[in-house]
Specification:
The complex is a heterodimer of chains A (251) and B (365). Chain A has 251 residues and is an alpha/beta fold. Chain A is built from ten helices and ten strands. A six-stranded mixed sheet of chain A has the order 6-7-8-3-9-10, sandwiched between helices. In chain A, β7 (168-172), α7 and β8 (199-203) form a beta-alpha-beta unit. The model of chain A has no long low-confidence stretch (mean pLDDT 92). Chain B is mostly helical and 365 residues long. Chain B folds into three domains: 2-56, no CATH class; 99-153; 160-364, MetI-like fold, CATH 1.10.3720.10. Chain B has helices spanning 28-36, 41-67, 84-95, 104-122, 127-146, 161-187, 192-206, 210-224, 233-258, 262-270, 275-290, 292-305, 317-325, 334-362. Chain B is extended, with a radius of gyration of 29 Å. Classes of the chains: A alpha/beta (251), B mainly alpha (365). The interface between A and B is medium-sized, with 27 and 19 residues. The complex binds adenosine-5'-triphosphate and magnesium ion. The site of adenosine-5'-triphosphate has 11 residues of chain A, from β2 and α2.
Chain lengths: 251, 365
């Protein structure tokens, strides 16, 4: 599986010797990562290991201080043009959903297409309805986020990211803020997207999901990538004691 | 479930208890009074004291204001209020010394503003159109009052009364809202120059009483202005009020901005929205809704503060009330004058705050 997708391709995300500090605190240490088109990467690791920081660097919600990040060949620098270009390619779904509470579901979905992609309102709305269908929420279009359950809100957040037609989707613990009975509906949607060939990086502690959907699992600790492998090997024969200890805690 | 009959299978049958009426004390007027007025002995004492106070104060007040009042003809020996004073002075109280043959102009303006207010409160038009109307109509109305475009000019020294108060307040509110929002945004800007400038303006203005600003606008500004530049007194006072009110509105809006979680900025950014788009479409609408009560409070305060222009020689509503009560032909009617004045201020301010509450109720998204 890994071989198929990596062979002969140039990576869509290319992270080289990435380093980041918060003040004196070294959060990300020499991160090297290549992600190929259509791959699903799951990142796991203990709290505070820098998982969120890493994926937030990829669309410049956080700034890095050393190393390079390239998305589809474009390097992330302080140039607004590059940042805007990369954000067009990269969508993100957050732990707390972060929908816009003052806008209806439909308006949440059409805001960015109208203003960033300069779509007509009508076109943006039909696109939005299409994506709401995909997450099975067509009938909720005119409600406000506060009127939906957590699982529904997270599916809206996914649809909102999809409306920008990104090639890459980043998920930061998309199910951590959800009650157990809603986790499945969100994971099902993500799995379905994975099947459709969207490149995804997903920080999650749902190991069942990782096993089923991931092409590669990455384990991070204290700001480093400790281990990186296909899910089968990762879960059955971890190479490092640290990974083993982590897995024995959460499985 | 006290009596349990057994089914053939040996299970107990559940029979729900019948509903009973609630205890009598909790409903009806008596129940309400028990709960709200006499629930503790301390509250009962307070209730009785308050009733006694009302019994003492209300009857004389009612008979002064209504029963013994004379309405249309002055009668100096009369016991009660003489509202004829107000009737007689009504025109100056409303429009000051605005020439009589031109009175249709302020009347037309009042009617138009009245309709606009009713339409706004009734929400008959879309918010966008309402905002557009509020920011364009007053420009035209200004020329109706002032003259121009074929209408004879009426000197601004003749303007006064409620018309002047309302004009200062409406223009003040309409302009200090956007300036206040800009100052608040500037205070959070990433550019140090903008941030320092905005913080400086806000803190300087808030550190000074409004009266001082009005004095400076009226007396000192002409000294600093280059020779030949002549801004009239009314405009200077209006600018002073806008400056003052903007600084306070900026602080109110800043409070609302601080309540927006960083997740909102990050979500908007990750969708590719530019900073200004994030501000206009995501952050400001939420921030303003958070602070509607305080914003309405600032508007009410600004309206009441217009009464301070009397100290730089403008005769607004309160000024006209004061001047009228000193008219030698109508001495001794101060009580009527100030009661009427308070009543008018109260009606206007109360309406504003009721409107504010209705916005709040509607905004619970
Ligand atoms: N803005 C910040 N300023 C200073 N330190 C920060 C900041 N954000 C995160 N950190 C620190 O950086 C480290 C990595 O944080 P990060 O959020 O990436 O961890 P994480 O792996 O996502 O953890 P979790 O599983 O709890 O979400 C943590 O030790 C955190 O305390
Ligand atoms: Mg995290």
């Amino acid at each position: 599986m890994v071989m198929e997708k990596t062979m002969g391709n140039t990576p869509v995300i290319e992270i080289t010797d990435l380093n980041k500090w918060y003040g004196n605190f070294h959060v990300l240490k020499n991160i090297n990562l290549r992600v190929y088109s259509g791959e699903v990467i799951v990142i796991c690791g203990p709290s505070g290991s820098g998982k969120s920081t890493l994926i937030r660097c990829i669309n410049r919600i956080e700034e890095h201080q050393a190393g390079t990040i390239r998305v589809k060949g474009m390097e992330l620098t302080n140039r607004m043009k590059n940042i805007a270009g990369i954000r067009r390619e990269v969508g993100m779904v957050f732990q707390q959903f972060d929908l816009f509470p003052h806008l209806t579901i439909l308006e949440n979905l059409t805001l960015a297409p109208c203003w960033v992609r300069k779509m007509s309102k009508k076109k943006a709305e039909s696109l939005a309805m299409e994506h709401l269908d995909r997450v099975q929420l067509r009938d909720q279009a005119l409600k406000y986020p506060g009127q939906l359950s957590g699982g529904q809100q997270q599916r809206v957040a996914i649809a909102r990211a999809l409306c920008m037609n990104p090639e890459i989707l980043l998920f930061d613990e998309p199910t951590s803020a959800l009650d157990p009975e809603m986790i499945k509906e969100v994971l099902d949607v993500i799995q379905q997207l994975a099947g459709e060939g969207i490149t995804m990086i997903c920080v999650t502690h749902e190991m069942g999901f990782a096993r089923k959907v991931a092409d590669r699992v990455i384990f991070m600790d204290t700001g480093e990538i400790v281990e990186e492998n296909d899910p089968e090997t990762f879960f059955t024969h971890p190479q490092w004691d640290r990974t083993e200890a982590f897995l024995s805690q959460i499985l | 479930m006290e009596t349990a009959t057994l089914t053939p299978l040996g299970l107990k049958t559940f029979v729900p208890r019948p509903d009973k009426a609630p205890p009598l004390v909790a409903s009806g007027i008596i129940g309400w009074m028990r709960i709200n007025l006499f629930n503790t002995s301390f509250n009962s004492v307070l209730t009785v004291l308050a009733l006694a106070f009302l019994c003492k104060v209300l009857p004389p007040l009612v008979s002064w204001a209504f029963l013994d009042a004379s309405w249309l003809t002055p009668s100096p020996e009369h016991e009660g209020a003489c509202w004829a004073f107000i009737v007689n002075k009504f025109r100056v109280l409303m429009v000051g010394l605005y020439p009589g043959e031109q009175l249709w102009r302020p009347m037309a303006v009042a009617v138009i503003m009245g309709i606009l207010s009713v339409v706004t409160v009734a929400r008959k038009l879309s918010t966008r159109l309402l905002i557009l109307l509020w920011y364009t109509l007053p420009v035209g109305l200004f020329f109706i009052i002032n003259g121009g475009f074929g209408l004879p000019k009426v000197e601004q020294s003749l303007w006064g009364g409620l018309m002047l108060s309302m004009g200062l307040a409406v223009i003040g509110i309409l302009l200090s809202l956007p300036f206040g929002i800009l100052l608040a945004l500037g205070r959070r800007s990433r550019l140090a120059v903008v941030r320092t400038l905005c913080t400086g303006i806000i803190e300087c203005v808030r550190g000074v009483p409004l009266i001082t600003i009005l004095f400076m606008a009226s007396v000192m500004l002409p000294i600093f202005l280059p020779q030949g530049v002549n801004i009239n007194n009314l405009l200077r006072v209006q600018i002073g009020m806008i400056l003052f009110s903007s600084a306070y509105i900026a602080e109110v809006v800043r409070g609302g901005l601080q309540a927006i979680p960083v997740g909102q900025f990050e979500a908007a950014g990750s969708l590719g929205l530019k900073p200004w788009q994030t501000t206009v479409f995501v952050v400001l609408p939420q921030a303003l809704r958070h602070v509607v009560p305080s914003l309405i409070g600032r508007c009410v305060a600004l309206f009441k503060d217009t009464s301070l222009v009397i100290i730089v020689g403008l005769l607004d509503f309160l000024g006209m009330v004061k001047a009228s009560s000193q008219d030698p032909k109508w001495l001794g009617y101060d009580a009527e004058a100030y009661v009427f004045c308070a009543f008018v201020y109260w009606i206007i301010c109360f309406s504003m705050s009721r409107y504010g509450q209705s916005i709040e109720r509607r905004n619970q998204w």
